[in-house]
């Protein structure tokens, strides 16, 4: 059972951190992009769809293969070859950029690619994803967002935009959720129907759980290099800071608001309210029932429900706030981009994107995988997701957080991965290794600034 749970946790974590995130100083695709004509009804086209979901096991590839089969039935003239990114990593999401780069170099890129929002700068400016506004027309792109019945959530529509143009259509993502063990809350004398709303309350509840049950209190899966930076950005924004200036010219993750966020988390570890665990250890511990709370992506909800079984009850709440401030969630996840070189394939690629982001597709994706349905009106539709939403009490906090969602910001330049990882290593060193938060972040920011385009000048 433990071995199965570990495998399930690993698979879920691959998705949770999948696009959780190289950029030049150029802008957009190389040269003008021509508008592509509609396909003729009898025009046969074959395209390749590359997604890290095909490298998983269970619900993810099964669901995507089901959608591809439905698309081909609806478009008998378009054949789709599904493939995972090329590479040998245990987590196929880490191979997405290198896989695409090698295929672009060889002159035969996949036609549609699922890439993380953390890679947006590099995807647009270096890999030259095609601007969909130019390819099929801005009105066409916006009509897809509007949908046949239900539009995209307003905060989700522009997550794949760059300098006013849509390059990627947001596809699957989550916001940070506070999952908690209702049984441990009851045992600690806490109200399981009144979960913590602030980080001060999280710390108090965690200490109560530790004292009363001997179990660990709370874990914030935003504070290690393995967690990437999507959730850490949410913490920093909620604390009143930013990891990078709004004009993208200057790194700001060593500013006082970020330092205070890291110090708050470090204090929880020092007080024994948060265990010193790896990401994987914490997820497994919570699923097993040995951890009271965890801030995590909804992509792992299925793992938690399976771990709970009939032994304990899973609760879920919105991301806590810092005292006196509004919590500002950011998004995890990925968008769909077009890299086809042939006009017919470009049009077929767009047809696939439209299908995969349709009401029908989101109904399938939400119910079979658990991802957030970006066409939120589906949850009130008896013929859509109403029954599923009524049976899924964990959905409401996630949907509500879309109302004040801010984008997961990609780092600039060809060295964006080193910038992101250096920042997160400093956070990890401070929170779990006891390094001074201000000094750790300041040192990492100095090194990262030299990696910015133009050396940060």
From TrEMBL:
<feature type="signal peptide">
    <location>
        <begin position="1"/>
        <end position="21"/>
    </location>
</feature>
<dbReference type="InterPro" id="IPR006059">
    <property type="entry name" value="SBP"/>
</dbReference>
<dbReference type="Pfam" id="PF13416">
    <property type="entry name" value="SBP_bac_8"/>
</dbReference>
<keyword id="KW-0813">Transport</keyword>
<dbReference type="InterPro" id="IPR050490">
    <property type="entry name" value="Bact_solute-bd_prot1"/>
</dbReference>
<keyword id="KW-0762">Sugar transport</keyword>
<protein>
    <submittedName>
        <fullName>Multiple sugar transport system substrate-binding protein</fullName>
    </submittedName>
</protein>
<keyword id="KW-0732">Signal</keyword>
